[in-house]
Design brief:
Blueprint (H helix, E strand, L loop, with lengths): L5 H16 L1 H9 L8 H18 L3 H17 L3 H15 L8 H7 L1 H16 L5 H17 L3 H14 L4 H17 L4 H16 L1 H8 L1 H12 L13 H8 L39 H23 L18 E2 L2 H27 L30 H8 L4 H13 L6 H12 L1 E5 L13 E5 H36 L12 H4 L9
Parallel strand pairs: 2-3
Antiparallel strand pairs: 1-2
Helix pairs in contact: 1-2, 1-3, 2-3, 3-4, 3-5, 4-5, 5-7, 7-8, 8-9, 8-10, 9-10, 9-20, 10-11, 11-13, 12-13, 15-16, 15-20, 16-19, 16-20, 18-20
């Protein structure tokens, strides 16, 4: 695209201001832009952006569709960050917000391809370090909104915190994160710190109303300010003294009901528990259902993977029993490097165990030895239409109220699909499992001697991928627990008569390692 002229900049400023005061007129004037100009690409981008934003504000689907068409043409010849971002916005505008009624699942399934494309566009912009920071923070914010709409609340919180890391004054991301935390707090099972963090985030939005207006418009700024005013001030909080706890909190790796700050008073970092389970097997005896054992192993494996990632940072904690040939390319060899690769692989292996647990609990009916996370939830593609509808037990559970189960379905789509935003994680996991991953602390890994069996990464880059894999695993376990909670609440409403109870005690209490009792 050519460098914008002064006339173009004036037109762009005029139309953007008009969006706030008279969006219908902004759409009308955008449609009159003459594209037969030396600045054709710039004008196409401007026209498309105004048509999409103004069409959404004034409920003009034809204008949105016209803008989407222009952006697809632009993206085909010049996929800059701002065009990719505008394309994502257009896709979201075309699909619309999901209804919060019985037609929610139908909407999500009908629009899933466009929403997946929008997630890819936002993701590409957010990951593009060369893109303008204001564009990247908005891409993270909008991606988070897409996650929230599908109950991928842990990933949404991660994305909003990433947006705030780029722009600490991004009140749109802060207020949306606060709303999600308060919603989860109202579901029960969260600590008081969940509400405290929500208040802290709301106050970020309150202090930065001007930035909210810049990112979301004047109307949204007023709504967000009103929301923040409803909450009081958060209590003071002392910094953590334990470096491990500081690291876990900073990297958002606690296994709690929500992605939250660490409360030292709780005594445990990972206190996410299953709700009470309505027994389905008559005469099953006086032991809890097998799903409790499965969930315990999920948690334990996650804690181990996280510990490996933490310990991998310090080579001195590992035994120095091995001698290694130096490959003269600044590669690092030893148990610390292998621990980091193993942490990544173990985290993503948990996804299959999440799928096995869901298959058992929701009675999906697959052979446990043949369950794979990416392929559990949907039928095989139709040979004629190519559609992959949900398998019946999954659809039934979601329609019955276990909405968070759809978050796992969508996460699996992003993980399994060739173009999914999480597919690189799967590819990296497969390389670490079946081939060789070599990490480099200096130099350029691309200069290493090539072999198809070996993949080379900068160690810092791979560390970030391992942390991302841990957050994906954490989110999947949280979604599983929330889906089970929702399902149990629905079962309780449909169950009449007396229900006997069996207390599931705390494991450490049973073993005599801790005072207390049933959770």
């Amino acid at each position: 695209m050519t460098r914008p002229s002064d006339d173009f900049l004036k037109l762009a400023a005029h139309l953007k201001a008009l969006l706030d005061s008279d969006p219908a007129e902004a759409v009308r004037q955008a449609q009159q832009i003459d594209l037969d100009s030396s600045e054709r690409l710039n004008l196409m981008n401007l026209r498309a952006a105004i048509l999409v934003d103004g069409g959404e504000l004034t409920h003009q689907p034809n204008a949105i569709e016209e803008g989407l068409g222009l952006l697809r043409d632009l993206h085909g010849v010049f996929a800059s960050a701002d065009i990719t971002y505008n394309l994502a916005n257009a896709l979201v505008a075309v699909t619309g917000n999901p209804p919060r009624d019985s037609s929610w699942l139908d909407h999500q399934e009908r629009t899933r391809e466009k929403r997946a494309e929008a997630r890819r566009c936002y993701w590409n912009v957010a990951q593009n370090l060369d893109a303008d920071p204001s564009l990247r923070t908005q891409a993270w914010t909008n991606l988070a909104n897409q996650f929230t709409n599908s109950y991928r609340l842990g990933e949404a919180h991660d994305a909003r915190l990433a947006a705030l890391e780029i722009d600490p004054e991004n009140g749109v991301a802060a207020s949306s994160a606060a709303r999600d935390l308060l919603w989860l707090f109202e579901q029960g099972g969260c600590s008081d710190l969940t509400r405290v963090e929500a208040i802290m985030l709301a106050k970020v939005a309150q202090r930065n109303e001007d930035r909210v207006g810049q990112y979301a418009g004047a109307h949204a700024a007023k709504q967000i300010a009103a929301f923040a005013n409803e909450l009081g001030d958060p209590p003071p909080r002392s910094p953590h003294t334990d470096p491990f706890v500081r690291w876990v909190e900073r990297e958002r790796l606690t296994l709690a009901p929500v992605v939250e700050l660490v409360d030292p008073a709780l005594g445990k970092l990972d206190w996410l528990m299953l709700p009470g389970i309505l027994e389905r097997e008559l005469g099953a005896g006086a032991t809890p259902p097998p799903v409790f054992a499965m969930f315990n192993v999920l948690k334990a494996d996650f804690i181990l993977a996280r510990d490996l990632a933490w310990r991998a940072v310090d080579a001195s904690v590992w035994p120095t029993t091995g001698r290694f040939a130096d490959t003269l390319d600044y590669a690092t060899y030893g148990p610390d490097a292998s621990a980091l690769v193993l942490a990544h692989r173990t985290a993503l292996d948990l996804l299959d165990k999440v799928a096995v647990t869901a298959n058992h609990y929701f009675q999906i009916g697959k052979d446990p030895s043949k369950v794979h996370f990416g392929r559990l939830w949907r039928r095989t593609p139709d040979k004629t239409t190519g559609l992959c509808p949900l398998v019946e037990p999954v659809e039934t559970a979601i329609r019955a109220g276990a909405s968070a189960l759809y978050g796992l379905v969508e996460l699996a789509d992003d993980y399994e699909d060739v173009d999914g935003i999480l597919r690189p994680q799967k590819n990296l996991r497969n390389a670490g499992t079946h081939r060789f991953v070599v990490l480099h602390d200096l130099g350029d890994p691309a200069c290493s001697r090539h072999a198809p069996e070996v993949e080379h990464y900068r160690r810092e880059q791979f560390t970030q991928e391992a942390l991302r894999a841990l957050r994906v695993a954490r989110s999947s376990i949280q979604m599983l627990a929330l889906a089970i909670l929702q399902h149990e609440q629905c079962l309780a409403q449909r169950t009449s008569g007396l229900v006997g109870t069996l207390v599931v005690p705390d494991h450490d209490w049973i073993r005599g390692r801790e005072e207390g009792g049933a959770p």
